[in-house]
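Bench log, entry 3. Co-assembly request; chain sequences pasted below exactly as received.
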Amino acid sequence: MKKWIQRSFRNRIFITMLLTALIPLLLGGALMLRLQVERIESSLAQQAELQAGVLLGTLEHVFSNCEQMTKTLSGSTVVRSALHRGDSGSRTLYQVLYRTTEPLRDYVRFDVYDTEGLCRYTTSTLVLPEALDIQWGLLPAAGRANGLVFRSGSRGGLTAARAVRGHGGELLGYLTATIDQAGFVRLFDGHYSAACEVLLLDRQWRTVYYSRPAQAGETVETLRSRLLSGQPLSGTDGAYRFYAAQHEKTGFTLLLQQPRTFNAQVMNTIYLISCFVGTLCILLSLFCTWQLSRYLSKPVHQLDQAMGEVERGRFDIRLETGRSDELGRLAGSFNRMTGEYRSNLDRSVRRQQELNETRLRMMQAQLNPHFLYNTLDTVKWLGVAHRVPQVAELATNLAAILRAAISGDEIVILDQELDLVERYVDIQSIRFADRFTCEIDVQERYRNCLVPKLALQPLVENAILHGVAGLEEGYIKLWAEEENGDLLLTVSDNGPGIPPEILERLNSPGRRIEGRHLGLFNVDSIIRLHYGQRYGLSARSKPGEGSRVRLRLPMRREEDAHAEGSGG
Amino acid sequence: MRRLFLLCLLLFLLTGCAGETDTFSSYAPPEEDRLVIYTSHKEEVYGPIIKEFEEQTGIWVQMESGGTTALLARVAEEAEAPCCDLFFGGGVDSLQSCSFLFEPYVSPLQEDIQPAFRCTDGTWTAFSFLPVVLIYNPILIRSNPPDSWQSLLDPAWRGKIAFASPLISGSSYTALASLLQVLPGDDEALLAAFIQNLDGQILESSSYVTSAVADGTCYIGAIPEDIALQAIQKGQDITLLCPKEGTTAVPDGMAVVSGCAHRDNARRFIDFALGKDVQHYLAEHCFRRSVRSDTGEGEALPALDYDIAWASEQRETLLARWQLLSGGGAT
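Structure output for the full assembly:
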């Protein structure tokens, strides 16, 4: 992965953009979801706690009123005397009973039992309640206690009993207050949200009331065993949340069972949807960042590819971006750079070719010089032996020229070159029977300047062969001068001059001419190749007024060359 | 590392910091107010008694109900770390045969118990007793009703006897042991003869015995008295009679589990259950006979000198024999 990221500019852009797009999105989403769930749950919890408090308040109100009413009734002389007498239809007792219990009768049924456990009076408008066991359960408990005893019924509901005693403390009967299922429904109705369920449990968590009577036994048993084993009341599935409030006096516990809005199933759905949306976001981000990274990295990629092509030697590559920003300008620069590079390379190749060709021509121009040299030596000694001094001189000069020609040096000092010119002139003087004179006028300070080997000889040759050859009194002058730091070597003659078309070609560098004046062109080429285009050969001539051929060379001396040589 | 951290953060946010604490531990009773009872009594019997006990003492009772044999096996399994404090129900012969599971307790109310139901070593305390009685269908049997243990071996009733498997029902084992003790002859031969006379008709629970007799599937049966009385009260047409040789009155007992967590509460329950109120309630509402000598039995029983010790000793052997002969017990 890391390698993949580092491999390309695009991948870096892609990953960076993807992360910057995705992380805040996903984190924010998750955080919002969590916060929202927390907020709703806490508000629901608050609501439930409030409702549980209200329900407990209602219960407390009813219980304390029951306490109060039974106390009033048990202290009432009417009740005592009626029970004492064993009356079962006392109108006065009913009046007292109804009047006292009036505020609670919607929820609570009040009964009066005699000592045998038979119900004598009741506020129930229906049937007379069954007899109660006076040896078992509530009534003996009430007899033992001094006050109202609250007990859950075996099948739910609640009955509270108080013993009625005479003035002497003798037991006269019992007063009971009963709240049945319907009574609790009326009591609690409207005090809690419809989605919730209410449970009222006695001290040992046996059912008193459950708003879903059918499931009372099972639910309460489960809750009780969870409480005793220390498990959460909501169990493992957590479909409900419980809120408890305890009635202090009776020890009864009121539980509000609230269905959890975000139970496991809902949360699963929410997570599923979140995951789906998240995946969608990821895919969209992937697509967008992939596209965007491509748009951003494309020019760089192209540039990279083009560079690779250039490295492989393709210089004709060009980048077409059509953009005007930095990347566009960069592409333009690249195009210019490769163009420049290409033309430079072309030039250098051409130069090398030219140099090679020139060398080849010069080589071709040379016969086997050693053979010639040896032959010339033989000729010289033959001339001496036969006392023909001209032949000996010719052979000596020619040999000297040849020696110079075959020597390996490319560059020689002017003095040597002038020596060659003098020998050449001597040879030609014999040939032309002294019909011309050659004057060499070079000051001593130029004599150690460096010049290409055999650069002057072709000029003199040209002046002799094409200048003074046909004259009776030919005159050739060779002189050196300095101009702007350059060395100028000029050969002039008084011959018929150079024809204009050749003159024009001579003065336009780079042009080739075959045959006549080949030597001059060669000299020009050699100088230009050695020293650059600024230097070379130039000619001036007017028909009938002679010609002047001039070499322009950089002013270099032997010591400079040595310094250069050792430096380079 | 950083990526891991981010991942953790994300997970933390997603799974949420919802640490919920609705164990309501403040509502749960403290350890000293708890009691765990394993009972083989029916809910109708133990329910009101437990409720009254809770009301009077404030102790929270946790009940586990089941068959005597299964519950005893469970207590044996948990012997290392007992969950159960008190074993409530089951014939004292069964309890005696597992005496190693229980620790002795002699209630201060021991003196009030009929001498026959007192345990000598205190392993168990008798709670109530139920004589095994014979029942028959009065429509199918008009004359000469079966009136003795001998009738159960009478080939005339072959395949017509309703009898629960003693492997499952403790009271059935008591009936079987009574039969073997009462009748003369070799026990194994008697057992074989009886199983042969059942002709493969073995019921899964003693409560099926009454319905089998009432609906005419069987003609006669042997069951504890309370089941017969309850069935009669519910309107099933059966007639109850005591065998003329006399009947066994093996009491069912209570025993404190050895090494239990709430020993004091278990003892308190035993004292409570032996109290007059409960004993009276038993006779009045549960068709069971009180073990107290002062509650006064309505009807005298032809008593049988039932050897509880023998019954407990022979239990394993007899049951193995039964299983062998009946071919795997109830099906």
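Residues 308-326 of chain B form the longest helix (19 residues). Chain B touches chain A at residues 6, 9-10, 13-14, 16-18, 20-25, 27-29, 34, 47-48, 51-52, 54-56, 58, 60-62, 277, 280-281, 284-285 (CB under 8 Å).
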